[in-house]
Write a structure and sequence with these properties.
Layout (H helix, E strand, L loop, with lengths): L7 H15 L4 E6 L5 H9 L10 E4 L2 E6 L2 E7 L11 H8 L1 H4 L9 E7 L7 H12 L4 E6 L6 H9 L8 E4 L10 H11 L2 H10 L4 H22 L2 E2 L6 H17 L3 H8 L1 H17 L1 H7 L10 E2 L1 H27 L3 H9 L1 H14 L11
Parallel strand pairs: 1-4, 1-5, 5-6, 6-7
Antiparallel strand pairs: 2-3, 3-4, 8-9
Helix pairs in contact: 1-10, 9-10, 9-14, 10-14, 12-16, 14-15, 14-16
Length: 374
């Protein structure tokens, strides 16, 4: 019988709540003419959860903000303007000067995605004036050429060539129909690079266009937690008697699931049923598997005085973290491929899949240093 005494479901719920509370949301302004495909761009990057819940709240007469408590970005929508011969000064001032006029840090714009329909074949004077003003505001600006699949390569190149180099705008092509013309991953990576460190986690979690960037960041965090586990070091056997290491594992699982935006899995983890599976995971990798770890991990030596070394603790953490990330990645990949039955089955069996994957990591003699590099 295990002397496991912790309510892992409760510990996980507390750790998950800590992650959610600590997240700072970035604000992204989506600007461009009416009908250029701003909503399609939002849906491709974030899914349809941002704008489908009710209507946007007005920030100015020309700008609405859309937010959802389950999506950790706030979208400022410029509503669009009509392509007419005269610039709508009210619209221009409302959109371009938003960042300068607001005194509320909550509404400060961190990124601007300026959409121009590649199918239109031209960059208007209005576009040029807006981009110039945005650039002068020192807010990072990406020009997104939408509907690139119905524009010729020559037209797209011609449109790019008229953008003055002093604007320093990166240009990305997107389409809802032809993946080879879609630069969504490049747009996501550009956005992550331009955001302050404190806002990157929320953006990476919320976007669905690039799963690999989620995996890269999950592995960074796993390595950090391995260092924490190593520092705990010399904790009593079994692992269930080591509250610091248990909290470390729960924080690790919670953050990874949050990063992959797997609320459905986290809800199961909070339930009583999956708590026993997680308990089995930790005790299996701790109390039961320590003997195997001693044999598998070079240089460990023997257990002395009922304690294990930090190397064993970090190895367990690496196994749990990588198994959680790989499983979460598989669920998200299945969903993106439209295989919802497979995703639901993986969610249903999440605990056992995680246990098997983590155990296999240890059986193969892997350690924290075997976590793949970026």
């Amino acid at each position: 019988m295990s002397n496991y005494n912790y309510d892992l479901g409760k510990i996980f719920e507390e750790e998950y709540a800590k992650v959610k509370k600590s997240v700072n949301k970035p604000n992204i302004l989506i600007a461009g003419a009416t009908g250029v495909g701003k909503s399609s761009l939002i849906n491709m990057v974030f899914g349809d959860s941002v704008a489908v819940v009710g209507t946007g709240k007005p920030v100015t007469q020309k700008i609405d903000v859309y937010e959802n408590e389950d999506v950790d970005v706030r979208i400022f929508d410029s509503k669009g303007y009509e392509l007419v011969s005269e610039i709508d000064d009210e619209f221009f001032l409302s959109v371009v000067k938003l960042a300068d006029e607001t005194k509320n840090p909550e509404n400060a714009i961190h990124l601007i995605w300026y959409c121009i329909a590649a199918s239109g074949g031209r960059v208007t004077d209005y576009d040029m004036a807006a981009l110039k003003a945005f650039t002068e505001s020192e807010i990072p600006v990406a020009v997104v050429m939408t509907k690139a699949d119905i524009a010729s390569d020559e037209d797209v190149l011609a449109m790019k060539s008229v953008l003055p180099t002093e604007l320093k705008c990166c240009v990305f092509e997107t389409t809802t129909k032809m993946p080879e013309y879609n630069h969504l991953k490049e747009l996501v990576n550009w956005s992550v690079d331009k955001l302050p460190d404190s806002l990157r986690f929320a953006f990476i979690k919320s976007q669905n266009a690039d799963l690999d960037i989620k995996r890269i960041n999950a592995r960074r965090y796993i390595k950090q937690q391995c260092a924490v586990a190593f520092g705990v070091g010399f904790v009593p056997i079994p692992i269930s008697d080591a509250p610091l290491l248990v909290a470390n594992e729960m924080a690790l699982i919670a953050r990874i699931l949050y990063l992959y935006d797997l609320g459905s899995v986290s809800d199961m983890v909070k339930s009583v049923g999956l708590s026993s599976v997680l308990g089995s995971l930790l005790t299996s990798l701790g109390k039961t598997a320590v003997a195997n770890l001693i044999k598998l991990i070079p240089g460990i030596g023997t257990v002395v005085g009922g304690v294990i070394s930090g190397t064993v603790g970090s190895t367990i953490t690496a196994a749990v973290g990588e198994a959680t990330s790989v499983t979460a990645y598989g669920i998200c990949k299945a969903r993106l491929n439209g295989d919802y039955a497979k995703a639901d089955e993986m969610i249903k069996n999440f605990g056992s899949i995680l246990l098997d994957a983590a155990s296999e990591w240890i059986k193969q003699g892997k350690s924290a240093k075997d976590i793949p590099e970026e």
